[in-house]
Amino acid sequence: MTGAETLAQKRPVSVAVSPWRPFLPLVWLALFGVLALLLAVAVGSVAIPPAELWAVITGEGSSLHNTLVWELRAPRALAGFATGGLLAMAGALMQILLRNPLADPYVLGVSGGAAVGALAAMLAGTGAFLLSGSAFAGALLSTFLVFGLAHGTGSWTPARLLLTGVVVASGWGAVITLMLAVGPKDKLPGMLYWLMGDLTYAQTPWPALVLLVLVCLLVIPLGRSLNVLARGPLQAAALGVAVRPLEWTIYILASLLTALAVTTAGSIGFVGLVVPHMLRLVLGNDQRLILPACALGGGALLTLADTLARIVIAPEQLPVGVITALLGVPTFLVLLYRSR
Fold it and tell me: Where, by residue number, does the polypeptide cross the bilayer (predicted)?
C-alpha cells in the first residue's frame, strides 16, 4: 500500500450539513408557540373542541365560538405571547451586557421603574401613547440608576449588580406603595390588579407584536458582535467591535422592550430570567440563535401561564404574574446557589 493510499484512507469523510440545521430549534419553538396559542383559545369556561376550533379558524364556526375566539381569547393570547417575548428578549440582552445569568428586568428594578412611570400616567389620566412613553422613561431611568450605581468607579461584579438592582427595585416598590396610598380610591382596585401582572384588559396585541418582530430583525444581524461582547468589553474592543455604541443600543432596547411589556400586561416577573437561562442550557450561547429563541420561548411560556391562570380556579382568574412568580422564584434561587 502506497503512502498516498494510506493517507486517503485516514482522511475523514466530509458530510454535507445544511446551513439551516443550527436554526432547526427555532422551527420547533415556533410550532410550540402555535400550539400554545391554539390551546389558549380552545380552553376556558366554554371549551371549544378541535373540530369546532378548525371551523372557527376557517370562518365556518358558530357565532358564539367566533365571538369567544376572535374577540376575547385570541387578542389576549397574542398579547400574552408578545409580552412574554418582549420580557425574555429584554432579559437576554441584559445578561449579554452584564455577563450575568441573574440579570432580569424584574430583578434589576427595570420593571419597577416602568411600572412607576405607567402608574403616574394612569393617575394623570393620559392616553395610551403617553402611558407607553412614561413607562419607557421610567424603565430607562431605572436602567441608568442600576448600571451607574453598580459600576461606580470600578467594574461590574455579579454581587454588586444584584445588590444594586434589589435596592433600586425596593425603592420603586416604596414609590408604588405611596402612589397607591394617595391615589383616588376608585382607581385603586384596577391599579392593584394591574401591578400583579394581568392580561384581562390587554386591549390590542399589535404594538407589542410589531415591536417584537422589529427588535428581532434588528438584533439578529448584531449576533456576532453580541457574541464577542458577551466575552467582555476589552476582548470586544480588541476585535474591532464598537463597544460603547453597542452597549447604548442594548440599554435602550432592553428599556423599550420592558416598557411596552409593562404597559401591555402590568408588572410580570421572572420571564426574562427563566427563559434565556433555560434556552442557553439547551441551545448553547450563540446570540444569533438565542435571541429569536427567547422571543418564541418567552411568548409560548407566558401564553401557557396565562391559560393556566384562567382555568386553575375557574370561573375566577388569577393574575398571570402569580404563575410566573411561582415558576421563577425557585429557578432564581437555584441560579443564585449555582453562581457561588
Answer: 26-48, 77-98, 105-123, 129-149, 161-184, 204-222, 260-282, 289-312, 318-337
